[in-house]
Design brief:
- Helix 4 links the parallel strand 11 and strand 12.
- The protein has 2 domains: about 140 residues, Fructose-1,6-Bisphosphatase, Chain A, domain 1 (2-Layer Sandwich), CATH 3.30.540; about 110 residues, 3-Layer(aba) Sandwich (D-Maltodextrin-Binding Protein, domain 2), CATH 3.40.190.80.
- It is about 35% helix and about 30% strand.
- The protein is built from 7 helices and 15 strands.
- The strands form 3 sheets. It has an 8-stranded mixed sheet with strand order 4-3-5-6-7-8-9-10, sandwiched between helices.
- With about 270 residues, the protein is of the alpha+beta class.
- This is Histidinol-phosphatase.
- Its cofactor is Mg(2+).
């Protein structure tokens, strides 16, 4: 796990500045992505020679817009983005960006993709934003905040508790999950849950933080896929680790759980993979 609430050296003014920078970056990406969403000129390409790993003009444009915001407001910080690689910083803080998490959903017209903005310190995630521009929802967690802003106003984020594994709602993005062994482990766990759903990308993590679902399990993630969801979920009282119970901020196999009890029960099954 990360030390998401360990920020004694961050003065209130600095915390406010970092939160404002994250919000401004998400605003910039929101403007770009909405200009392309459900449009005809996406410029879609695949990053893979075999298979399909899409990237669009919206992905690249949104990341460029976020980088410009950070360069103007926090020029000494590092940046790690999905589309344009790392920029070294001098402050020990790195902004971790995924301009469109869920590009397959984006090009299909489903409003389940999101913009991810995270701030990482030496010990892990400090702040995260999951933004869904089309719905107009923004999930923010870190520096003592856990909040959803959206069409119905603002409200605190809090995971739900008191749910057993046999009552749990579990999400993953792809039914295959990862390797054949990872897929078998996931489906073994899912068979013990009440309801399994697929294809929500980062929005599944947002729903967990909002108290709507109970588990998200994935494999093959990168740090820019998980840092922002991790910060939001931990701020809302949930748990995010790898499938062995260790840190998840570098990606890989990830489990997000609403409660310690669900986390422990799920790990018993996933740890066999």
């Amino acid at each position: 796990m990360t030390a998401q609430t360990s920020f004694p050296d961050f003065a209130p003014a600095l915390r406010a500045e970092l939160i404002a920078t994250a919000q401004a970056a998400a605003d910039a990406a929101r403007q770009v992505t909405l200009g392309y969403f459900r449009g005809a000129q996406l410029g879609t390409e695949s990053k893979m020679a075999a298979g399909f790993d899409p990237v669009t003009l919206a992905d690249r444009g949104a990341e460029q817009a976020m980088r410009a915001v950070i360069a103007a407001r926090r020029p000494e910080d590092g940046i790690l983005g999905e589309e344009f690689g790392p920029k070294e910083g001098r402050t020990g803080l790195t902004w971790v960006l995924d301009p469109i998490d869920g590009t397959r959903g984006f090009i299909s017209g489903t409003p389940t993709w999101g913009v991810l903005v995270a701030l990482r310190g030496p010990e892990g995630a400090l702040l995260g934003v999951i933004d869904q521009p089309y719905i107009g929802e923004r999930f923010l967690g870190g520096f003592g905040l856990a909040r959803l802003d959206g069409p119905h106003g603002s409200r605190p984020l809090r995971v739900r508790t008191g749910v057993g594994l046999d009552e749990a709602v579990i999400f993953t993005t792809f039914p295959e999950v990862g390797s054949p062994a990872e897929g078998r482990a996931f489906h073994d766990l899912a068979r013990r849950c009440r309801l399994t759903r697929y294809g929500m990308d980062c929005y599944a993590y947002a729903l967990l933080a909002a108290g709507q679902i109970d588990l998200v399990v994935e494999a093959g993630l990168q740090s820019y896929d998980i840092l922002a969801p991790l910060a939001v979920i931990e701020a809302a009282g949930g748990i995010v680790t790898d499938w062995r119970g260790g840190p998840a901020h570098d990606g890989g196999r990830v489990i997000a759980a609403a409660s310690p009890e669900l986390h422990a029960a799920a790990l018993e099954i996933l740890s066999l993979a």
